[in-house]
Every structure is written in C-alpha cells, then in structure tokens.
Design goal:
Distance between the termini: 7 Å
Strand order of the largest sheet: 8-9-10-11-12-2-3-4-5-6-7-14
Radius of gyration: 17 Å
Order of helices and strands: HEHEEEEEEHHHEEEEEEE
Strand content: 35-45%
Oligomer: single chain
Number of helices: 5
Length: about 240
C-alpha cells in the first residue's frame, strides 16, 4: 500500500492542489529535448464515433509538447480560489508551470526531480519525481498514451460540434485523482476538470494553446545565487 504524505502535496498547487483551508497566497536546472520527436496531427473537426476513445489517445500522442496559459478554479463546498499561470510540458516527464500573482511561484521537473521555487521566500524545495506523474493530472501532459491507459478507465466520450470530451476514472482507489473530464478541440486540450482526494473540484481552462516543439532552453529553472535549497528524501512507499 502506498501513501502520499501531506507534505508531498504542500509542495505544489497546480495539478497537485492543496486543500483550500490550508492555502496561503504568497543554480540552473535544465533538460534537453533536442532528440525528442513529435507530431502535431491534422487539425480535425469531426470524430468518427462518439463512443470510441481512440480520438482521445490519438490526441494525447499528438501532445508530445504542450504549452498554454491557464486559469485554474478550485471549489470545495462554498470556498473558491482562482489562479492563473502558464504551463509548458513534454512527454519525457519534464514540465515548467509558472504561476502569476499573487502566487508568483514556479513548479519544475527535469524528468528526475520536482522543484518548487518561491522567489518571495528565496527558497527551492526539491524532491524525487517518482509517482507524481501517475498520481496527479500533470501526467496527462507528460506520460504517453499507453501509460495513461494503464492508470484510467475511459467512458462517456462525446462530441458537440468541434468539442470532444471524455471521462477518465482512476483505476487506483488510493489515487490523488478520482476522475478527470477532458475537453479537446482540434486535437488539443482546451480544458479539464477533476475531483481530487481532498474532495475538491478543480477546473482548468487553457488558452493560447500549442503543441509545436518547445526549445530546450525554455525548460530551465534559474535559481538565483543565495537561494536556500531544501531537499526532501523519497517518502513514497
């Protein structure tokens, strides 16, 4: 049995949402993707079958690279929190999520370790990436289609005009994600909603989306001199 400690979730707020009741507003690492391959896929407006999830997984395969601005809304009971930011990701397991004010934080993965940089605190938290990709929605942008199939059951695929949606339900009862509702337009993720293990419903709306190759230099975290670096041992069992 694997347990994800609460400290694991405290390290992130996008795709790794901390409970609303505990929310507070407040060296160079890189990874080379020059040898990565990707396919953008043909832009399509029609789906062959409303019940066939292949369109979803074909679209995921087209997302070798993904970049977008986003608005994230988190709701639990009568509490609501809205934050904005930008995400870039690659299916080798690397990603960079930059939050705008008031958070002003950066979440980064080099495919091995996960970093959270808080410029206000002048601190970087570092811990092994491990199960983060399979236990949180960031895996939808960083895992391949076969890996995602192993994690989720797909149902309720539907199409309205040029919008295609599918419901993904976690096969693991202990997963941080209970279900994810994905919307796709022209083979690109346009939005997603999910329920987490805290009972929070989170929605993400993407704009200025792109699946074209992202230069390797964009996948860098610049850590200013004098920043405190706090490393965490792997506590996932």
């Amino acid at each position: 049995m694997r347990n994800l400690p609460s400290s694991f979730f405290i390290l992130a707020t996008f795709f790794l949402t901390t409970p609303l009741s505990g929310f507070s507003d407040r060296t160079e690492v890189d990874h080379d993707t020059k040898d990565a391959t990707y396919g953008s896929g043909e832009m399509e407006k029609q789906v062959g079958s409303l019940e066939d999830p292949n369109y979803l997984f074909d679209s995921i395969q087209a997302h070798q690279f993904f970049s977008a601005n986003f608005e994230q809304t988190t709701v639990k009971e009568k509490n609501e929190r809205i934050v904005e930011g930008k995400i870039i990701a690659h299916r080798s397991g690397i990603f960079k999520i930059s939050y705008h004010e008031p958070l002003n934080e950066i979440m980064f993965s080099d495919g091995k370790d996960f970093y959270r940089y808080d410029p206000e605190l002048e601190q970087v938290n570092v811990q092994p990436l491990d199960q983060l990709l399979s236990e949180t929605p960031i895996g939808l942008f960083t895992l391949n289609a076969n890996e995602i199939k192993e994690l989720f059951s797909v149902s309720e695929c539907d199409k309205t005009f040029d919008k295609y949606t599918c419901l993904l339900t976690s096969k693991n009862e202990e997963s941080f994600i209970k279900w994810v509702d994905i919307s796709i337009k022209n083979r690109v993720f346009s939005s997603l909603r999910y329920l987490d293990s805290f009972g929070q419903k989170v929605s993400l709306k993407f704009k200025n989306t792109s699946i074209v190759r992202i230069p390797s230099e964009k996948f860098k975290l610049i850590i200013p001199e004098g920043t405190d670096i706090v490393s965490y041992e792997n506590t996932i069992k």
